[in-house]
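Limitations
The structure tokens in this dataset are predictions for the assembled complex, not deposited experimental models. Users should treat interface geometry with appropriate caution, especially where small molecules or nucleic acid strands are included. An illustrative entry is reproduced here so readers can see what is and is not provided.
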Amino acid sequence: MEASQQEFLQHLLNGVTLGSIYALIALGYTMVYGILQLINFAHSEVYMMGAFAAYYTGRTLQLDQSPGILSFLILLIAAIVACSVLGLTIERLAYRPLRKAPKLNILITAIGVSLLLQYSAQVIFGAEPKLFPEVIADRTLFTVAEVEVRTLDITIFLVGTLAMGGLHFLIHQTRLGMAMRAVSVNGPVASLMGINVDRIIMWTFVVGSSLAAVGSVLVGLKYPKIDPLMGMLIGIKAFVAAVLGGIGSLPGAMLGGIFLGLSEEMVVAYLSSTYRDALAFGILIVVLLFRPAGLMGTPVKEKV
Amino acid sequence: MNDEILLEAKKVGMEFGGLKAVDGFDLQLRRGELVGLIGPNGAGKTTCFNCLTGVYKPTSGEVIIRGVNIRGLKTYEVSRLGMTRTFQNIRLFKELSVLDNVIVAGLQHARQTVMDDVLRHPRHYVEEARMRERALELLRIFKLDIKSDQPSSSLPYGEQRRLEIVRALATEPRIILLDEPAAGMNDKETEDLMHLIAQIRRDFRLTVLLIEHDMRLVMGICERIVVLDHGCIISQGTPANIKSDPAVIAAYLGVDEKSAEVT
Amino acid sequence: MTDQRARGLFYRSLPSPFLATVALVLVGLIIENSTNAYTQDVVLWIFTNIILAVSLNLVSGFTGQFSLGHAGFMAVGAYLSAWCSLRPEFQALPDPLRFTLLPAIGGLGAAAAGYIVGLPSLRLRGDYLAIVTLGFGEIIRVTLLNTEAVGGARGLNRIPATEGWLEIGLSPYLAQFSIASFWTVLTITALWRIVHSQKGRIFLSVREDEIAAEAMGVNVTQAKVRAFVISAFFAGVGGSLFAHSVKYLSPATFSFTKSVDIIIMIVLGGMGSFTGSVIAAIFITLIPEFVLRPVQEITKVDLRMVIYSLILILFMIMRPAGLLGTREWNDFAWVKRLQLILSRLLNREAKDDSSNTPSPSEVS
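Predicted assembly:
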């Protein structure tokens, strides 16, 4: 096989790996948006906090001494619990009092919460990057067509797929999921049908935050330096992925995430790395100009 | 009376994802006519209005206003052809004063530029005074001038409906489409409104198309009535003809006219 | 209204901006002689922030289009102005004049960017527009980061500033202060007059109800693009003033966080109130420097941003309309009373204070 072809496959793999992380975080944005029509800017900080929760758990239990699936699971659970509690707290203290306020106010509050968490984290954890515990040794698992498939890539891909599959099951096969869908279509009517909307919103935050937690642990393993500002860029990009796919649409968020991850990887590999961070927005603007509701979103006509 | 056709709809159809909200809608409005558009709830009346005013782009058919086909025109361009409307669910500029609501509608006829405003050029003052006077004059006709400084959202419901009509008139239209102008009004207010519509039609030489559920109002002032059901015209003619048309009675059968007001 | 009376009003509207600038310059004279260099710099930042806040308010507060990319326009203005000031061609103009005109160049560049950003607003609404403006802001920043002509990631160093006009006793600082005052008064006057004229009501009508505005013959698309262009122009002016007062530019300055800073100013001051924006811009510039910094020195921990964001959240929950809501300084009863008393003292016709004719509210 030609070297260039092999390189391409390698980039493809990297792109999908990166993309599935974007997708995991994008799902949190899109779920909250679907139900509250709110860009939850604090989501990226929930993700950041997840990484730190896992980091401190790992350090306390000295998990890097005993790498393996078990240690990995402990980190995951720690991050999920921390993120869920944080997501719930934010919802309860900051967003719920503003349920009936103008949209802009809630958006500003979300930005405020994001800033608060970011700067508090800098005060508490320090601005210095921390080294994430290496609980899964990254080695070449096997080679397909001369492409190295590494443990981490497989882990990220598998865990990501599992989490998204779980979400799909939750949304489409459970009563909770049905209630979530009902609230996102029409909150007031859902509440008339006996659905406790506040409780559904809480669950949405729990589920969205948990997905971010999973994402944070995967990122921590792949790019082990974590710091309080780690959520900013990835958060914005994940949000872009959500909008790209059509905000409010779960398959859209997954598609948008993978699409974004792949395009970034390819552009960096074959064109130029310097514009990497602007690429997401370039794609976003182009897509929105042609499909204002995103790739998989349905345009909403205002009733006149 | 002049027989010039001001508004013509030819086989207008509007589909929403396979659902035909309006189908084969034909209408000719002659200068000075007052036509009523009635039909049970969900018959597609407001959708018709939206197609005629360019808010929706009809999926089939043509709309011609004063000789201009509105296909491809923006809503504001249609409005500037001399046709304007009121809204079923009142859409005033809530936080603007009563006066400003009317002024905004007249601005297409203002002659100053943004630069005149910034430099406070004499032209700015002349135009400001002119627009203000014009708006106040209109408000006076509808007895709203004493409230000109209040935010429009603070007006009682009936007055908000009247203000919508004033605002529409400020665009200096030739045709005005009224979407349920009497909705939510009591008998006395409806009565007043009937006279008012007749009066403005005379004084402003308007052609009027109105959607209304209040049969007394429709039968009382309309010269011609078009009945819509399930997106199709099922009957049209004089109020007397409509009243006795079996198709119309069938469409309304079991539907109490009063209860149909709640949308 | 007769032409003669209109002309009279025109002449009466002329001196107020001029007087306001002179008054500000006098304040500058006091500041120069009574405070240290650090305080003097902070005061200059106030002007920049006021310009940024009121210009964003035109788009977000008055036209209702939520923009998350204001720092991008500021960056275009700052970089363009700084780059021009470094070009030899520009040295031909005499000093104070050169630095008075540079903000206009920065503004024009930013206005062009504003036009491009305004175009997608033809199709996008609400959150989608917000995220696209955020995207444009980031694209501008990354582009600057990759443009070697303006220093790339290293930033642009040693940006010249005015050296004053010593022959007439204008020190460098006072010259800088005067230029900033001039542009600030110009910005506020222009925006105030646009919004407080009937044509300016178009922006408000778009904010209130696009569909109704459109049905009343308002070209909503044009109004939005105009709002973006005007707002971007002044953001560019603000950026230029910033560049020549800080004398160093780095793309990192113009990140999303800077846009958020400006949003915070207009939200705290009140969306749709220029007065509120001005007050909030002053406080938000001063508080971190003179209140939070000493606190930091005592506690040894940088709690500035923590407190700042906490205040923001609490404000949103407890006072969602901001300090002033949509009220302006002359909407308060006591100001109106004062105006009435003043106008009687000056023996003017009482008629002149009706809302139509320019009252003293035209001062700013």
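Some entries come with short summary sentences. For this one: The first strand of chain A starts at residue 130 and ends at 131.
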